[in-house]
Amino acid sequence: MSFVPEVAVVLQFAVATFIIAITPGPDMTLFVGRALAEGRVAGFACMFGAFTGIVIHTSLVALGLSALIVASPQAFMALKVGGAGYLVWLAWNAIRNGSAFSPETVKRAPRTLFQNWATGLGINLLNPKIILFFMTFLPQFVSANDPHAPGKLFFLGMLFIPLSLPLTAPMVIAADKFAALLKKSPRVTRIVDYLFAGVFSAFALRIITAQAR
């Protein structure tokens, strides 16, 4: 299957996905907060709404990057190098500012499954950092000269969901314990921040050193 990257690439992508999935952010705050306020079903509905957003973002990014590869492999490579710089900035920001996690815990009238799903979708689609992140993150795992790059971009984007599901689902199931852990153990969130920074710096270094050869 030409659209499946090499095993080494998939493993690297899986490591990065693991770090991203456990890093507190707007999506995770919504999942856990809604589970605390309205129950696990509401948390899962928000989570699958966000996953739907990832499918849309991945499709748009894969199509756009595919067109860029066809039009100008040099421009695609420039995007990779620029993306490496962006990943370094994300790494520095994680160390400097840390993770923010303030889940909603106020009990409210239960929303419908569709409303929770739509909330998760909206949080994901309306966050400009998400598409910027995917535009700079996914290209690090494909070559501008790879004729199968479009398929690999889409495959990796879709792979993000099943890889992150086993990590995010338990967080929703154990929302109260997970939220308490992050609130009472700042050291845990700092470890996650440094893992995030380390992995992204490594990917940035890889593309920059590859360009220097």
Architecture overview:
With 213 residues, this protein is mainly α. Helix content is 80%, strand content 0%. It contains nine helices and no strands. The protein has helices spanning 7-22, 26-38, 40-71, 73-97, 113-125, 128-137, 149-173, 175-184, 186-212. Helix 3 packs across helix 6 (128-137) and helix 4 packs across helix 6 (128-137). The longest helix has 32 residues, at 40-71. It is globular, with a radius of gyration of 18 Å. The chain starts with 6 loop residues before the first helix and ends with a helix.
Q: Provide the gyration radius in Å.
A: 18 Å
By DSSP, the count of extended strands is 0
List unreliable stretches of 5+ residues. Answer: none
Give the count of helical stretches. Answer: 9
Assess the beta-strand content as a share of residues: under 5%
